[in-house]
Amino acid sequence: MHEEAKASDMEASQQLIEKDIDRVGKIALSVKTKLEELDKDNLRNRQKPRCGKGSTVDRSRIATTV
User: What superkingdom does the record give (predicted)?
Assistant: First the structure.
């Protein structure tokens, strides 16, 4: 009986760990998507006057998103 209880506890623990891993994966994907959007927005911003590559605004935006 003791061994069965340990096996049941291990299964429950594994299920909790798998749920946590899935949740962290979803959060990581969400963060990655948002960072990619920021990078795209930075590139679009370079098209504006005085915001070209290497400008003060561009360097500030890139430094913030790094």
Answer: Eukaryota
Q: Average the pLDDT over 31-57 and give the result.
A: 92
Residue 23: pLDDT band (50, 70, 90) is very high
Q: Is 7 left (phi over 0), alpha (psi -120 to 50) or beta?
A: alpha
Whether the full predicted model's pTM is greater than 0.85, yes or no, is no
Torsion of CA 53, 55, 57, 63, to 10 degrees: 70
Which one-letter amino acid corresponds to residue 38? Answer: L
Cβ pair 53, 47 in contact under 8 A = no
CA distances from 47 to 17, 23, 41 (A): 46, 37, 10
Q: How far apart are the first and last CA of the chain?
A: 55
